[in-house]
Amino acid sequence: MSNLKKRILVTDDDEATLDFMEKALTDGGYDVFIATSGEQAVQIAATTDIDLALLDHRLTGLSGLETGRAVYKLSMVRFVLMSAYPDQDLVAKAADEGALQFLSKPVRRSDLLNTVTVCLARAVEIKNKEKSLKELEGNFSNAVARGIASARSVNTVLGMLMKDYKKTRDHAYKILMRLSQNESQKAVELSEDIIREFEAQCGGNEDIGSDDPGSTNK
């Protein structure tokens, strides 16, 4: 991926630091957006497709940590927290809030560029994993929905057989299995065909799901 396509949001209330970081990142081939407050950073993130945010922790108004939390919730963009006064508690809180790395100030140009390179790669990796997880969750939900629909179809036909033939649920199940073998169809597919045929004959006016096949044996 080309650095020219990557957009970096830098937030600091120190003008000299902003100028230094903007020049270093621009020279490194990145598109740079600058903000002097957390509120301004959130506004930029809301209107611009940002790939990574570099946030000074001690800002007027929203802190860097609060800004990072807001930016992530708004745009799912990961961030790097910067501070001239690092401590273990702050580093731990930053990690818990989704910071990819903690950068001590004053920042050297080489450290800045290396951090951005590494964190951009990590951000892409995390985003891909999150996307895969969402797809898996979606597939699982669809599979569960299909399973519920299939079970409902089979239970409905069992109820019809129990009612029409005055059979117990076990006997009705055996009848359905025999029909399935004779028709060379899966029980679910056969049940769905039976339901569609019944609905066509009734014109959709009769509720075939009114009997609960799992509650009463006849």
Number of helices: 7
Total number of β-strand segments?
5
Integer average pLDDT: 82
**Percent range of helical residues:** 55-70%
CATH homologous superfamily label of the largest domain: Response regulator
Strand/helix succession: EHEHEHEHEHHH
- The class by helix and strand makeup works out as alpha/beta
Give the end-to-end Cα distance, rounded to a whole number of Å: 68 Å
> For the record, what CATH class of the largest domain applies?
Alpha Beta
Instruction: Describe the main β-sheet briefly.
Output: 5 strands, parallel
- Detail the poorly predicted runs: 210-218
For the largest sheet, list the strands in their spatial order.
Answer: 2-1-3-4-5
Q: Give the overall shape.
A: rod-shaped
Concise account of the structure shown:
With 218 residues, the chain is of the alpha/beta class. The protein has helices at 15-27, 38-47, 64-75, 88-96, 109-165, 169-183, 187-202, and strands at 7-11, 31-35, 52-56, 79-83, 99-104.
Walk me through what this model shows.
The chain starts with 6 loop residues before the first strand and ends in a 16-residue tail after the last helix. Helix 2 runs parallel beside helix 3 and helix 5 crosses helix 6. The chain has a five-stranded parallel sheet, sandwiched between helices. The longest helix has 57 residues. Helix content is 61%, strand content 12%. The protein folds into two domains: 105 residues, Rossmann fold (3-Layer(aba) Sandwich), CATH 3.40.50; 59 residues, Arc Repressor Mutant, subunit A. The C terminus is likely disordered. With 218 residues, it is an alpha/beta fold.
